Structures are given as structure tokens and as C-alpha cells.
Amino acid sequence: MSVSAHAQLSAPAGDYYIRSLDPSGRFNGIQEILTRPETGYHKAVYCETSFWVTRSTVAWTEREAEAGRHLVIINELNKKPEVYCADPEHYVRLEDLGLKKHEILKARENAEPVDMQSSRLRIISEAFKNFK
Asked: Pick from 33, 68, 57, 65: which is nearest to 108 by CA?
């Protein structure tokens, strides 16, 4: 997954999330990504499709990848999640967003540690596990 001027595809309908899975396939965390520009979001291309992400989302994906977790993009349409993009070898980096060096350092410094974030998300996930 990388930023590219060549990607011109629009994402199909649905809500999109980057999901982190530990090596055993267990859910670890999730970040929403957008299909349209919004203030504070940067264009990023995953699987030849343009999405809009925050700096903190990219910092989070960097940390998740460094921790050995598998990242996939999920498309949720009508409450039915499907893997849209599964390519664990490539991730958008903060450097790909066209940020200045001090902005990159600040985004990485402000990124919440993976363990704290995944624990909080795991608790929320467990709370909704049996909800139908």
C-alpha cells in the first residue's frame, strides 16, 4: 500500500476500516478511513484505491506493522464486513503524506502506544461480541 498519483479508482460503497490482527488472527485494533476528502485527512492509496486518512491513523499502522501485526482494509456494507485489501507487505508511511519533517516527528510522538490502544479497543470489542 502506498501513496501514488497513478491510482484513480474510487472505493465502492460502504464504510472502510484498517483492521489490525495479531499473528494468530485475533483482532487487535481498528481505525476508520474515508473515501472522500475531509479537513485534517490526507490522501493515501491502498490497493490502487484512493482513501483519506489522518496522521494518527498512519502512525498507528506503522506501529502495528512494526509490532508484527497483519493489517487489512475492511469494507462494511450493510453491516457485513468484507476484506477489501489484504497486502501486509506494504503500508503508507507518514513520509508518504507530504508532511514536513517536524510534522512527522510530532505525529509519531503523539501516537498512542499500541498496547494501550489495543487494550481499550479489545475491551470495546468484547463488550459488543454477543450483540446482534
From this structure: 57
